[in-house]
Request: fold
Amino acid sequence: MLKKGAISFGTAMLSILTFSQASAEEEVTREEFITGLLETMEVPVESWETEDTDFNDVNEDFAPYAEAAEALGITNGWTEENFGTDEEVTGNDALMLMLRALQLEEADETYDSTVKNGSYRGKAAQLGLIQRYEADPLRPHHPVNESQMEELFGRYDNNFERLSFVHTNDVHGRLASDEENGEMGAAKIATIADNVESYSEHSLVVDLGDAFHGTNVVNFNEGEAAAEVMNEVGYDALTAGNHDFNYGYERLLELDNMTDFPVLSGNVVYTESGEEFLTSTHYVEALDKTIALIGLTAADTPVSTHPDNVDGLTFQDEVEAAQQLVEEVKQESDHVVLLTHKGYSVDQDIAETVEGVDLILGGHSHTTIESPEKHGDTFISQAYEHSKAAGVTTMVFHKDELLTVNGHLIRDHEGLEPDHEVEQMISNYEKEVEEQLSEVIGTIDTKLDGARELVRTQETNLGNLVTDAMREMADVDMAITNGGGIRDDIEAGDVTLEDVLTAFPFPNTVVAIELTGEQILDSLEHGIRLYPAQNGGFPHISGAQFTFDPAQEPEERIQEITINGEPLDEEETYVIAINDFMAAGGDGYESFEEGEIVFESGEALSDVISDYIANGKPIPEVEGRITAEDE
Reply:
């Protein structure tokens, strides 16, 4: 056995895991170390917003690195108002930062470089980032020099195998880039996918649902444009989202046949036969391992797409389905990844209750997860919405075993160039619908508010306009529509068909039903039950007013309600206009299913709104139709 100091020069030179001996080399600063670490991790820091940086001592060039390190949990608790850009990095600091980059060390807000010396070095030695012997020059409380830093990064880069997922969710047909809205579009997603493929041992591109519907360029061809563009990008799998059923489930099957990749869903079956509607699991061979990709769709899809679109299908509980499917694939796979469209809270439920899931990539709740979060033994990630971010989530293997999962989000930034072929394909589809959409149908002198955070929580002038148009067209006592059916603002000035269809992309029609006053009251209570949380079922109304108290229990909140200026009579029968989605119980409006349909207009809601604007009808204000007592 070699004694201390007896290691030969030749042995040291042959060992690829031996650090260069301490020398008179220049010691590295925090700025230099973090810059090198993030570049080693392939984090495109250009996508971080730095105009309002919290740090006082970072320059313009380093600011994105500092913000990215903070957002990814690498420097949390290590920095306050001052980043300490020129301060030294000790051996213990370096190991702590490396382990955090690997998601193996939690960010401690009260970090003390002397506290976890043993655990840092033990973990690092197990991973081959440092040597165990005492002569290792990377000393806990000594500054790190340039050679030591470079060798440490080399080991980080070379000691692990990586399977990377580029993932998108809730794109809702945003194929084209929209710089103003921060939407990268599919052509830039393609570039990101190519970049990740260039440095990762193996990479996959997946989408977590709501891809085929949402903008005119995909709605006009019932999802064909999205399917063909995603083929060109090189997607490997897509999980069916609730809005991917918007053209009816038979069309979704046609889209599945158009794609070069499988559309997945393991918890949707034919009601009569119990057979799978779509493929539940897609197996991928990567790094000499079999990876099972399991798709899951939101169980509440029948109330968040038109119920007719899924008539004949049963959507099973996501957690129960996950448990069953994971058990089924265990014998045929080495690792399990769930591709879900059911929301962050359900993803957490699965992570905490279903054993054997390594990673969940999710959608549906439009959640922003900057770096994968660990719940139990499972990591979860989600990449916001509308191509405003793309996730890069990496399964990291050490000595053939899954060690951890790390990653980051990428947003649009200078230098991110679109893929030319994908961009040209999108342009061709846009030209096909441009002529019809560019028709000016009228002019308005005020902006109509249709922002998601507004229409799902409160009265807006656009919600008032659409319900006024519905009530007038159907000549009824009252009109109600759901905030989730309103998808964008309509700006002041000339209004085109495209503007209306962008705000109202769903092919809903106007119907009139008879309801008792009691049923109307129950339906409105249902619509505001989740307030102040955003809710696609939040009601917008015409011909009525109500006041509610959010402090009261759900279903008991409405304090006062009138229809056409008279107090609501719960025994009286009223005729109200709603859209056919709600008439079929959409967004959980079960009381509407009980009403008798007295008029089916066959008129698309978007056409009713277009006619209202074209005829120069008055633009309503926010006038107290819906009032919360805390306002």
In short: Residues 161-430 form a domain with the Purple Acid Phosphatase; chain A, domain 2 fold (CATH 3.60.21.10). The two ends are 78 Å apart (CA to CA). The first helix runs from residue 9 to 14. Residues 217 and 501 are 11 Å apart (CA to CA).
